[in-house]
Amino acid sequence: MGPSYFDYLQGMLKERSGLVVTPEKVYLLETRLLPVAHRHGYKNIDELVDALKTRHDESISVDITEAMNTHESLFFRDNSPFDLFQKTILPQLLKRRADTKSFRIWCAACSSGQEPYSLAMTLEGEASKLQGWRTEIIATDISHSVLDRAAQGLYSQFEVQRGLPVQMLVKHFTREDEYWRLNTDIRDKVHFRHLNLLEDMRGLGTFDIVFCRNVLIYFDVETKGAVLDGVSTVLKPDGVLFLGSAESTIGITDKFWPVKAGRGVYKHIDGSASIAEEE
Question: pLDDT tens-digit profile of 198-225?
Fold first, then answer.
């Protein structure tokens, strides 16, 4: 791939998805985009880019963007955020929302669905406490293809072995040949929607809890700040933001501040006492 082609792709990916591809990642571009070129009938990536420049084919742009965005996910990833949610955040949330008996959770960059489904299974485990409550989990991603797959709730043996407790596998999944299908009662708890985190998020409504984990690491500082500022517009004043263990708001935005509840947990810096804080 020639330098001019790399520069074009680098700029396009940054503009469309916020993804930062540095020169040392040329191999990644070549590995992921060559199949895209072949699928569209071109011999190599240079031909693919030439066609994109002249035809401005949106389907090519979408395929390139989706191919380059990482969709790594697993059930109960890192575990501690889910444990914190169940044992600390949820009880406090139930106290704070006792008047409305409702709350909403947003999983941003949800990939193939393991994170929102992990939360759905967690809520199912607390069903006795949630009788009469209205709960909603919204899961979004930039990739239409992974959202379609997530909605099917179909996972390989390898995928269900990554982080999913055996008892939950037996309780919530049904074997289909070499795969496992998540049961309808859990799938119905999650609503998948397409969203680019660089776009206006306010159409989603407001949320009590936001999981935006392990996606900011792919952005530059400016884009991280823009995304976090956007999240601040949809997170309720006393709401809770979960980021990945390698992510932070410090030095990036003045909208959030870490709380003592646990690593990777944040609140509005100028809001009232957060759900994540003991009252």
Answer: 999 999 999 999 999 998 988 889 999 9
Name the DSSP class of 162: S
**Residue 44 CA: distances (Å) to CA of 21, 38, 216:** 19, 7, 30
Predicted TM-score (pTM) of this structure? 0.84
Q: Locate tokens 């889910």: which residue?
A: 82
CATH of 80-152+184-268, one of 3.30.540.10, 2.60.200.40, 3.40.50.410, 3.40.50.150: 3.40.50.150
> Model confidence over 36-90: pLDDT tens digits?
889 888 888 888 888 888 877 788 888 888 787 767 789 999 899 999 999 999 9
Q: What is the side-by-side order of every strand in the sheet holding 235-242?
A: 190-194, 134-141, 102-107, 207-211, 235-242, 265-268, 256-258
Label the pairing between strands 134-141 and 102-107: parallel
